[in-house]
Amino acid sequence: MDSPSYPGDAVPAPRAGGGSPQAPAAAYATSATPYAAPLPLGPTAHPTPVPGPAADHDDLALDQGRRMVKAVQRGIDGAALSHLLVTVPLGLISLAVVAIVSGLITPVLALIVPVAWLLSGPLVFHRGVESAIARYLFGMRGPTPEEAQRLDVVWEQVTRRAGVDRETYELWIQERTELNATAAAGHIVAVTRHAMERLPNSRLGAVLAHELGHHVGGHTWAAMLADWYALPARAAGRAVLALLFLLFRTKHWAGIACGGCLSLMIVQFLFLMTFVEGMWWLVLPVAAGPLVIARLHRRAEFRADAYAVGLGFGEALEDVLMAEARAAAVPGAPPYGPAPVPPGVPPFQQPYPGQYQAPQPYPGQYQAPQPYPGQYQAPQPYPGHGHPVPPNLGPGKAADSGRLVAKAAHTNAEARLRNVRLVMSQQVQRSVP
Q: Which residue windows are transmembrane per the record (predicted)?
């Protein structure tokens, strides 16, 4: 297959039928501010959309006329190909697991089941199977008539700029409170309902263009195929870890002894496979696989962002990533900042609909004394439970866990934002004579 083109090369094809040619991709991405160096994470010159139903969604410049559809609708880039190669050793282990488990039932199944399992991979790209995966595995739904009408306008512009047949992919809705979209299987592009409500058409087109970049680059189908063939090996590994955890958790000498013996057997088996049998080429990639795959996922995100910038959605994608960075830096905060306060209302934090409000004391009612700063305060039970804190999780651990998750998400959004600005800077430099 031909490799998809990325920033600088993703220029929309000229229109057929005598129309004027489309502007280069850089014309969509350039702005009055030069991107000679990465910009600080802060407010940009272009306006930020107003959250809520009052936002003006119709801000996407519509491109009329016919467009030339590319002969190759999708390909496979370096990130997708590397993902497949990294999971080959894990796939071989999965094949052995399937053969051993089926052979324990009957020797005939040891020959039939592994072959059937190998041939079952392409079935995940059947339209009916994809619909079942989207509906029951990812919790997606079909768009309502109003949502379909709006998505139709935005998707038409995204596919027109990319030169991709719009009927190649199906649009779905996810009930999630994130400004995001998802590419799944081989023909599914899903956008969250929260993004439909909060984002104007230009920024909605940016997230859809990002997901189209995943499909065009082959990231989606390569990841799904790799996950499918690695599933038996990962299930066997998790079963062994669960057994070890159960044995050591018994706190009985017999369980601890069995867990120690099993751990020594695993270490001895890995040592023999690596150094005695010379199968390091199988053991080392499996051990380093998670780190390599995480790096490839990040590279695929950068490629998809660059593809969206090449289609002219650079500034819109920058706004979306900045909103994600703000939301990740302050967990629970609205992505586009707090809602505006109407005139005359005091600037106090208002409860959201359905939130419990403690009753206010009436005049003369006894009030328990409040602890002074630094005084110990006994933990209060959380709603629906009698004990003061969740079992095995103190307030310090919960806060630390939340901070780590928020920091990781914030770092990812910042890295993508720097990459988008770098690609936009490169496009500006190419457009300067």
A: 76-98, 104-125, 253-273, 279-296
